[in-house]
User: Fold Phosphate propanoyltransferase from Rubripirellula reticaptiva.
Amino acid sequence: MTASTIDRSVIEQLVRNAIRQSGGPASTPVAARGAANPPGWIDGKPNLRVSISARHCHLTDEHVEILFGAGSVLKPEKDLYQDGFYAAEQTVMVVGPRRRMLGSVRVLGPTRPFSQVELALTDSISLGIDAPVRHSGKIDGTPGCVLVGPAGSVQLTQGVIRAARHVHMNFADCDHYGVQNGDMMKLKIVSPDCSVTFEDVLVRADEAAKLEVHIDTDEGNACNLDTATEVTLKKGGCGCEKK
Amino acid sequence: MTASTIDRSVIEQLVRNAIRQSGGPASTPVAARGAANPPGWIDGKPNLRVSISARHCHLTDEHVEILFGAGSVLKPEKDLYQDGFYAAEQTVMVVGPRRRMLGSVRVLGPTRPFSQVELALTDSISLGIDAPVRHSGKIDGTPGCVLVGPAGSVQLTQGVIRAARHVHMNFADCDHYGVQNGDMMKLKIVSPDCSVTFEDVLVRADEAAKLEVHIDTDEGNACNLDTATEVTLKKGGCGCEKK
Assistant:
């Protein structure tokens, strides 16, 4: 990878992906629940994708109007892998204590019932906010921040988190791996000189979801995901004993 | 941890440490090679320390003089855990392509026969330099950069790396773990909602070394080392199957 592609992949893109063939436990395709081809499956089996979520935020309709002007709505710029979700054209400035800030944090759509800022721990440290590891939506008692847009600003009293690792999957994927919504899995990433096994990967199951692990930039950079040669998702045990 | 302690631990300190009781394979103390108490041992057994190395650089005597003025030497500011090594008072600016820079990168002493800049991948991306994962000193063919000090600047033609994970240990530690210089080990970090097993941890054995794993800030932040409750170093297998 050259410096210019690093630049492009990190600065201009919101999400980097590593798409690999799943090394799941079942060696033969599992029949989906009445569907010939569940979302995201290729050739009758799940296709594991690992994506790095760069820092981003979710906004309420009300906050979109305050930050970008009355009548404003989010403008989709790029579709995410999960159907119906997108990176918006809009970005906000996130301001922490002692006037530290992140100048341009991408807004993801669609809007939500609450606003939330998702940072990697490195971002959180540079912003001076102690963001706890939380699953999306679990923001009670988390720190707040100030969001600044071209038309106004919003004081969030809570909602700054480090998003916990998770894997989106549909129910056919659940059957394939023998897991259900809320279970924890392990993800092994084989990468030259910096292989890692991530534990505590929460299963978030939904009928329409496509199999995709979300890790943050610290996690993606810890294993240099761009150079990974193999990714394996496991129900229990990280598979290291077989290597 | 409050925002102010994050600030202090990351901005002002060079190295953060997690000191834990070793969960090594031997349940009884191993006799050291003729020494009553090998370096770093406590109560007759190794005491595993995991340290985060923030970005830093090593300089030659010649480069110290160019950057800080004729006759300059490194001034120790803070001793590192390994005897004889220190964070110097001096810092340099590291400049990458397209005028991106890291304004204040700590110099570690003592000086070396070659200058080298060690970054986390996140640093490397923000600097616009594609730093490969390398073990210290293995800098052939790596990218260069410009170092700027108060008295002058140096163009490094190579030497910018992401330091590969490694563990310093003495020969009594080697005996304890059943490894030798150059072997690879695994380090499991148990941390709330973000446990990780790091593979590819290189053994760097030396008579005077104290048992200490060095990971970088991305790796430390990926597992939120500050909140870790348990660290385990293993010769083979990450121990996950026993959890």
